[in-house]
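for the writeup, i need someone to sanity check this before i put it in the appendix. the sequnce is what the collaborator sent (i think, or maybe the updated version? ugh). structure was predicted straight from it, no edits. if anything looks off just tell me and ill rerun, i have time this weekend
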Amino acid sequence: MRLGAAAPSIHVATTAFLQRIFINVHLCFVLNYATSPRLTQELREAFEAESKEKKLPRLLLTAAVSAGAETIRGGYDVPAVAAYVDFLNVMSYDFHGKWESMTGHNSPLYAQANETTWRKQLCMDFGVKTWERLGAPKEKIVVGTGTYGRTFTLANPKKNGMNAPSSGGGDAGQFTKEAGFLAYYEICDMLKKGAEYVWDDEQLVPYAYLGNQWVGFDDERSIRAKMNWIKTNGYAGAMVWTVDMDDFRGRCTTKTWPLIGAMAEELLGRPSRGPKNLLPIVKKPRTTGGKPATTTTAPNALKRADTLKPASSTLPVKDEAAEPDTNARVVCYYTNWSSKRKAKGHYEPEDIDPTLCTHVIYAFANIKEYKIVSTEPVDEGDGGAKKGFWERIVALKAKNPLLRVMLAVGGWMLGSAPFREVTENSYRQSLFVFNAIDFLREKGFDGLDVDWEFPRGADDKKRLAGLIKELKVAFDGEALASKKPRLLLSMAAPASFEAISAGYDVEELNKHVDMINMMTYDFHGDWERQVGHHSPLFPLYTASNFQKKLTVDYSAGEWVRKGASKEKLLVGIPTYGRTFTLGDNNLTDIGAPSTAGGKPGNYTGETGFLSFFEICDLLRSGATLVWDNEQMVPYAYKDDQWVGFDDQRSLKLKVQWLKQAGYGGVMVWSVDLDDFRGSCTGQSYPLLTAIKEELKGYKVANLEVASSNVFNSYGQLVDPDEVVCDEEDGHISYHLDKKDCTMYYMCEGKRRHHMPCPTNLVFNLNESVCDWPENVDDCKHVAKT
């Protein structure tokens, strides 16, 4: 043990609320910046050992932690902090103060609608929920409340609202004697002298001003609103900073401890000690349309069983489904505009065969005001009897319990604009991430597919990597907090080596995504003036050096060379062809001159493009079919029309190639373009069926449990190398991640946490620490050269 060197001194913990008010003095450790799993582990284990040895109740271990969203994300290993401590005292105050040049409440419950994006994250609601969303269990989150106010000297006494210009902190109080700060009993004196009291209906807190002095503070009304918010959100309770700054002598009114007393009444159901508002106040009505200011009478008090109830370990019994004979992924995109096609091209969610795909991705959703929104009216339905496509596609999981349904956001029509907007600053990005989680859970989706087409340049590259990382961290945290399966995260990725280099930090992205959907198609098309197959497996022997890079084989290899794991790479398979109008009907080989794209199909209606079922019609009308032995793909022509496409033969070869190379599976664009009605051969979905048949028996190596598609009889993901927490090695134990030296597993009882080491370090199992790579034999390859 290194407690003498590592641990802070023991403090006396005063009043705090955790399902009860600890009026008595309790002895516990308080970690003001608990970021070290090793330190907190040693403290917790030492406390437990001391308790057993002396047969005394175990000392409590708590952590005082920041409520600033950026500090939380950058400074705390949230799951590790939460794992060892008994509770987290979130210091949800001091959001604003004399260090700023404008007035602001030090502990607003909510933000104002007209504030800057940066200031909108400086409120209790955003800060506390950041802890929850990053993995802190609600039953360990104790919300900080202040019994003091932050004061300002107004630059102009006539400008006395929120965000008014200030020239510094307010005058020091008579008793606390600190500029920019007043105890609640000093604020009472200010109000008694005639200060004007204002209630902010958006932030649900009061402020007051007298002459050039301004103070934002909490009173009984705002405390009650905050306690109701705590109960509504299911948090553990409240923490007070500090007991000695409440009106403990009853200077304000006839009752002592008015703020802490209000907490006791609201959280614990203590009897009311008299009227709730005794000070004469003047209220200015607000018309900004913020949060409602009305509060209800005290609901039932928090009960310990409400928040500390252990999760059930009973596995849900599901309908039996056939165990898959491959762990490879078959990801099928579904396009929401396919329902607009007429006759045999018309396609709706129920046309999907849920047994042919392991994952279905719904394309596309948009981003507006940092939220996921629909792109077509059919997405959401009419809110009544007519169900939307989102609901209908999620319902496919009832037919196949192993199916995962995800939502794609972005796409080529939206381009980069919405992604650049949400990654403009950390507040916008966090807001989008948290809104996305709420949306996906509400709609029943199993994950998110990020389809940014396409990031370009150093700034975009950094933004995409940052967005993907924050999504993954938030998905991990939300799963821990909600005890639900983690939301999946994938991204659509270009096949062009130039686009990869221009916009993708491959090594960083690979750390966080479950799947990389390579769009290994559209290498050629009607934007060129010579015919070419849009998804060749290999190049022509006579191709130029540049053209040799425009193949499925080269592009997939480029992702690997840049740092992507093969098991995460899914090879894009098109169920459509790119068409051309020949410049000379007698010149039909690859590279022949063309004048434009081919004629639009009868059902897809797009120049230069035919679905597979439209290509079938072309072949049945007498088109000549040619197999290219070099590129391993077919093409066909009739008169001046030419099309390059994939058929069952080429897809079987592509799947054989990917199995030999060790890739994670296939991505299909799109399920609605295959011959889903069986008009070609009498078999529906001939292309998807060919893929599925060829994948039988294929086992993808090194596939992480979180992104694999191997299930047990309960429909839950399993892995032969999975770390199972069973307390055999103690309540807290550490384990190797056999697939990633920079990660490790921490077991807290039967809860497992997947943890990262700091940058450039790897996990050393012998020492149970993150260490330099040269000190760990199996991880020396990680060292930077």
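Confidence is low (pLDDT under 50) at residues 1-35, 275-321, 705-718. The longest strand covers residues 359-368.
thx in advance!!
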